[in-house]
Specification:
- With 666 residues, this protein is α+β, with helices and mostly antiparallel strands.
- A 6-stranded antiparallel sheet has the order 8-11-6-2-16-15. Strands 7-3-14-17-18 form a 5-stranded antiparallel sheet, covered by helices on one side.
- It is built from 25 helices and 18 strands.
- The protein has 4 domains: 180 residues, no CATH class; 285 residues, no CATH class; 30 residues; 74 residues, no CATH class.
- The relative contact order is 0.07.
- Strand 9 and strand 10 form a beta hairpin.
- The protein starts with a helix and ends with a helix.
Length: 666
């Protein structure tokens, strides 16, 4: 019998002590999770809102004592909803969004199981990963500031788990902020000297840009894009001097196929580059920071000779276009050298195969435009005369507008002979059709034209509203020559920007409140300059930038230099920290109410009243009131508050005591 009892005792596990969370600690967890998860829900499927809302509501009701812990059926149902949502939203693709969606599911459901400090710690650890994942969707200064706020809440919440006495929320945040401030110097040092392995946000994701043009342009496409004020890219010229507006044509795509209504790019990646020929003149160096647009093409002026970035992923095609090897899902900076002019030692020739491509048209499209060209050819006009006639026609009878009427199947005929109102793609498309009908090789080019110069940081901001289409015409003996039909109709569009070329009704569509106020314009320029500095020196801080900075600071990038510098920095920092700690140690040992009384004694000392050795605060105040009865109310109030805090443990009055001491002797 004794042996049987002994074996039963051995099989019985000892009770596990679980330190349950107080209500205030659960409240901090709820606040922390709500703040951290908010920016992610705007970039993830809507059903995740439902999962998080159910979890937060259930946990809140548990916090209020209204509901009990969820049972197995409730947890199983929520898990099944997450699995079904993941399958529906991400069944055919994998990537960072899929992983973040799964992480948000775990982050939301884990809240229902938080009962002890260990559970809360696990939730906080997930929160650190959630904070880092926020930067995968946005890397703006605002996102970085929000990340710091998230870190502050995480540190404060983590620290609150181990508090043994109540603290007001502002004091908790202050203590958490102090921990972050202590870590900031080390973070900055590591950012400057640590090897650049590629930023976190360089991981490809599934999100694509919502602005920008595609490799197919039909009437009205760029007109809709012109209403967007989103930035397309920013350009810094090496000599910090912008080119004249009529030279700021940023080539993006060459469209060489026309189906009767839309122009398309025959090869979305561009043909391989030909052998270099021609003398390149008017060379210019510049750097571009381009916004993500989900496509492989980049932008450059005229004829790019070289284009480099940190990953060497850019190539130049035969049409003098810049193509990245992968679609652009993240902001990227690259350096370009372009030639604004090309002179040929011998007259260039266009191969017959390419001539056929650049003069090809659908056989039955736009008969009226064809008849017009045939009448010109019947007059035995030269190619240059046909070009001049077309530009003169546009200049004489057409107008520039953002609100052209919709065009049907024969879009060129309807534009040339009926509406006569259009945007840049209308003029470029009809101009290209007329020249091809006359047997003149021509291609459509889409990109951006112009930009707004920012004098704060000396760069050019090109917005989506600067999207533009023009043509390149093959001139015998000269090669491809740029001709912009829009310049014949609205020259102000090229020199002064799109808004200057529009009428009153169209201008109301694109103008905003800040464009009519010089103060708001300056604020907008400075804000955009701050974003540019952030992108250039933080997001694009690569190996090359690091070597340049360390060379200027240390005189080189050798390992021994970095080691000596880090050791010296560490010793100086440790000495400063030790000096501050020793100097503040007496005050750090005092409680807040005692610190307040010390400040009161310093103020009274200026009036000649010094507290004696071993003299109580009450006796000290009573002695002062004999000669200074005018301070009776203030000093008795301070003494009463001190007694309540120090001897009656009424810590809620601590701020009132500090405020009373600060206001004394008013």
């Amino acid at each position: 019998m004794i042996k049987q009892r002994w074996s039963r005792r051995q099989k019985t596990a000892p009770p596990v002590h679980a330190e349950y969370l107080a209500r205030d600690k659960l409240a901090w967890l709820l606040i922390m999770q709500s703040v951290l998860i908010l920016p992610l829900l705007f970039n993830l499927p809507p059903w995740l809102w439902l999962i998080w809302a159910i979890s937060a509501l259930w946990r809140t009701q548990m916090f209020r004592g209204r509901w009990g812990s969820p049972g197995k059926w409730v947890k199983g149902l929520l898990t099944a909803l997450c699995v079904a949502g993941m399958l529906v939203s991400y069944s055919s693709r994998t990537g960072t969004e899929t992983m973040i969606g799964l992480l948000v599911c775990a982050f939301s459901l884990k809240l229902l199981e938080v009962n002890a400090i260990r559970d809360a710690q696990f939730l906080i650890f997930i929160g650190f990963i959630i904070t880092a994942s926020q930067l995968l969707f946005s890397q703006t200064p605002q996102a970085a500031a929000f990340g710091l706020v998230s870190m502050l809440l995480l540190i404060t919440c983590w620290r609150s788990l181990y508090l043994t006495r109540m603290q007001i929320p502002t004091l908790r945040l202050k203590r958490g902020g102090a921990i972050i401030l202590h870590a900031l110097p080390l973070m900055l040092v590591l950012f400057v000297v640590a090897p650049r392995l590629g930023p976190l946000w360089a991981i490809p994701n599934q999100q694509t840009a919502k602005t920008g043009f595609t490799d197919t342009v039909a009437p009205g496409d760029l007109g809709n894009l012109a209403l967007s004020q989103e930035p397309a890219f920013r350009v810094a010229f090496n000599n910090q001097t912008p080119l004249p507006p009529n030279q700021l044509y940023w080539r993006g795509l060459v469209l060489d196929t026309f189906d009767g209504r839309a122009w398309k790019m025959r090869d979305s990646w561009g043909r391989a580059p030909d052998r270099d020929s021609g003398n390149k003149q008017a060379l210019i160096d510049y750097s571009i920071i381009v916004e993500p647009h989900g496509q492989p093409w980049l932008f450059s002026l005229m004829t790019p000779l070289s284009a480099t970035n940190t990953t060497n992923s850019i190539r130049i095609t035969a049409d003098s276009l810049l193509m990245n090897y992968v679609p652009l899902s993240q902001r990227m900076r690259y350096e370009v050298k372009s030639a604004l002019q090309v002179e040929w030692p011998e007259a260039p020739r266009l191969p017959s195969i390419q001539r056929d491509i650049y003069t090809r048209l659908p056989s039955s499209s736009n008969p009226q435009a064809r008849a017009l060209v045939e009448s010109w050819r019947a007059q035995q006009l030269t190619d240059q005369q046909i070009i001049d006639n077309t530009l003169a026609l546009f200049r004489r009878e057409f107008s520039y507008t953002l609100q052209p009427p919709e065009l049907g199947t024969h879009s060129v005929d309807e534009f040339l002979f009926q509406s006569k109102r259009g945007f840049c793609e209308h003029f470029a498309s009809s101009f290209g059709f007329l020249l091809r009908a006359a047997g003149i090789p021509v291609r459509l080019v889409v990109g951006y034209q112009g930009g707004r110069w920012n004098p704060v940081e000396n760069y050019l901001l090109v917005r989506q509203s600067d999207a533009h289409a023009w043509t390149e015409v093959w001139i015998e003996g000269k090669g491809w020559q740029m001709i912009d039909p829009t310049a014949a109709v609205a020259p102000n569009r090229i020199e002064l920007g799109m808004s200057a070329a529009l009428g009153e009704s169209d201008r109301e569509l694109v103008n905003s409140a800040w464009q009519n106020s010089s103060l708001l314009l300056q604020i907008q320029a400075r804000w955009d300059a701050a974003n540019y500095v952030w992108q250039r020196w933080v997001l694009n801080y690569d190996n090359e930038a690091q070597e340049g900075l360390l060379s200027r600071l240390l005189g080189g990038t050798e390992s021994w230099r970095l080691t000596l510098w880090l050791i010296g920095f560490g010793l100086v920092s440790a000495a400063i920290f030790a000096w501050v700690l020793v100097r503040r140690r007496p005050s750090l040992l005092l409680r807040r109410e005692l610190k307040a009384i010390k400040k009161l004694e310093q103020k009274l000392k200026q009036f000649g009243y010094v507290r004696g050795q071993g003299e109580t605060l009450g006796d000290f105040i009573q002695r002062i009131l004999v000669n200074a009865p005018q301070h009776s109310h203030a000093l008795r109030n301070i003494h009463q508050l001190f007694v309540q805090i120090a001897y009656q443990n009424q810590t809620a009055h601590i701020e009132q005591l500090e405020r009373a001491v600060k206001q004394f002797p008013k």
